[in-house]
Amino acid sequence: MTLSFFKLLFSILFHPYFLLSINALCIFWYFYYLILYQFVYFKMNNLKFGTDVKSTNSAVSFQTRTSWRAPIIWEGMFDPKVFDQKHIQENSTVALTVFAVGRFTFLMSAEQHFMLGLPVTYYVFTDLPDKVPNITVAPQRSLKVMQISKHNRWQDISMMRMKTISEAIELELRHLFRYVFCFDVDQEFKGRFGSEALGDSVALLHAHYYKAKEPAFTYDRNVKSKAFMKTGDYYYHAAIFGGTWENVKHLADACYLNILEDKLNDVEALWHDESHLNKYFWIHKPSKLLSPEYCWDKHIGDKSDIHIFRLVWAPKHYNTLRTWQNGQTITTEYS
Ligand SMILES: *[C@@H]1O[C@H](CO)[C@@H](O)[C@H](O)[C@H]1NC(C)=O
Ligand SMILES: *[C@@H]1O[C@H](CO)[C@@H](O)[C@H](O)[C@H]1NC(C)=O
């Protein structure tokens, strides 16, 4: 009885029709998963990290992802609608901090391009509150002017910037916003600067250095400074940094303490808070990098990588890189 049962089973299992159908099924599933996987992989990449689509193009000289797998945001890598939808659903709120706004350009252009559709509050820190232009902002958005005391030396200004940001987060921002973004004021928004830029810890690739290799980066090479770096990943621009309030507070505190320690040791980092920022991001890798589209210098001749100008350095300062609110400028060796 058992023997005939096994005989029957055997004859079914090895029947040519049965084998053929198993084969057909396998082939079907193989293609099904192949196609599904490709699709899902592409979609997930698109949503979460942006794709490597561009980097497969040999004509393109830029990276779209860091070695620690943080995306570098370039035009064409993301679907703006997907990011906007996600952040609206998550009720994301954004505080933008900026120091000493005496001109309309920054704020007016931010109203046209910065995080449209999300609740945004501009925190303008200034020693001259009366000079802040009285602009009307869109619904869900607001402008807050915060008075700070005046510092004459730009070194002190750059140091106090970190302290002020940290204090503001502690006192107010942490209760009202998920994200904090800190901007230099000498800039103008020109195109979408949207929710794709939001992330846990966000750094900006410096437009002058995004193609350069490490030895060219202007890290602080002075071993006496807390900002000293022997080597690094990228050269980040201090004109924009951001992230969740927790991370931005951590960054501001760390940079402030290091600047303070340098000051006690009578050392000043080469590029001040930018040197310290680079050191910080070397130790604490940012989770997202913004391409130079997010802060372009129109005087760079080769624009071949840049398909959209989202923010540009204000033209009036074309021959200097840094202009602080007291009018003192530092000319630079960038060129
Ligand atoms: C966003 O806000 C709505 C309305 O207040 C709320 O129902 C929803 O749970 C919030 N979503 C998240 C992710 O917090
Ligand atoms: C700003 O403008 C609004 C409306 O135009 C006005 O109510 C407000 O008083 C103005 N504020 C200042 C400081 O001028």
UniProtKB/TrEMBL annotation:
<feature type="binding site">
    <location>
        <position position="206"/>
    </location>
    <ligand>
        <name>an alpha-L-fucosyl-(1-&gt;2)-beta-D-galactosyl derivative</name>
    </ligand>
</feature>
<feature type="binding site">
    <location>
        <position position="186"/>
    </location>
    <ligand>
        <name>Mn(2+)</name>
    </ligand>
</feature>
<feature type="active site" description="Nucleophile">
    <location>
        <position position="274"/>
    </location>
</feature>
<feature type="binding site">
    <location>
        <position position="218"/>
    </location>
    <ligand>
        <name>an alpha-L-fucosyl-(1-&gt;2)-beta-D-galactosyl derivative</name>
    </ligand>
</feature>
<dbReference type="GO" id="GO:0016020">
    <property type="term" value="C:membrane"/>
</dbReference>
<feature type="binding site">
    <location>
        <begin position="184"/>
        <end position="186"/>
    </location>
    <ligand>
        <name>UDP-N-acetyl-alpha-D-galactosamine</name>
    </ligand>
</feature>
<comment type="similarity">
    <text>Belongs to the glycosyltransferase 6 family.</text>
</comment>
<feature type="binding site">
    <location>
        <position position="274"/>
    </location>
    <ligand>
        <name>an alpha-L-fucosyl-(1-&gt;2)-beta-D-galactosyl derivative</name>
    </ligand>
</feature>
<dbReference type="GO" id="GO:0005794">
    <property type="term" value="C:Golgi apparatus"/>
</dbReference>
<dbReference type="InterPro" id="IPR029044">
    <property type="entry name" value="Nucleotide-diphossugar_trans"/>
</dbReference>
<dbReference type="Pfam" id="PF03414">
    <property type="entry name" value="Glyco_transf_6"/>
</dbReference>
<dbReference type="InterPro" id="IPR005076">
    <property type="entry name" value="Glyco_trans_6"/>
</dbReference>
<keyword id="KW-1133">Transmembrane helix</keyword>
<protein>
    <submittedName>
        <fullName>Alpha 1,3-galactosyltransferase 2</fullName>
    </submittedName>
</protein>
<keyword id="KW-0812">Transmembrane</keyword>
<keyword id="KW-0472">Membrane</keyword>
<keyword id="KW-0479">Metal-binding</keyword>
<feature type="binding site">
    <location>
        <position position="297"/>
    </location>
    <ligand>
        <name>an alpha-L-fucosyl-(1-&gt;2)-beta-D-galactosyl derivative</name>
    </ligand>
</feature>
<dbReference type="GO" id="GO:0005975">
    <property type="term" value="P:carbohydrate metabolic process"/>
</dbReference>
<keyword id="KW-0328">Glycosyltransferase</keyword>
<dbReference type="GO" id="GO:0046872">
    <property type="term" value="F:metal ion binding"/>
</dbReference>
<dbReference type="GO" id="GO:0016758">
    <property type="term" value="F:hexosyltransferase activity"/>
</dbReference>
<feature type="binding site">
    <location>
        <begin position="99"/>
        <end position="101"/>
    </location>
    <ligand>
        <name>UDP-N-acetyl-alpha-D-galactosamine</name>
    </ligand>
</feature>
<feature type="transmembrane region" description="Helical">
    <location>
        <begin position="12"/>
        <end position="35"/>
    </location>
</feature>
<feature type="binding site">
    <location>
        <position position="184"/>
    </location>
    <ligand>
        <name>Mn(2+)</name>
    </ligand>
</feature>
<keyword id="KW-0735">Signal-anchor</keyword>
<keyword id="KW-0464">Manganese</keyword>
<keyword id="KW-0808">Transferase</keyword>
<feature type="binding site">
    <location>
        <position position="104"/>
    </location>
    <ligand>
        <name>UDP-N-acetyl-alpha-D-galactosamine</name>
    </ligand>
</feature>
<dbReference type="GO" id="GO:0031982">
    <property type="term" value="C:vesicle"/>
</dbReference>
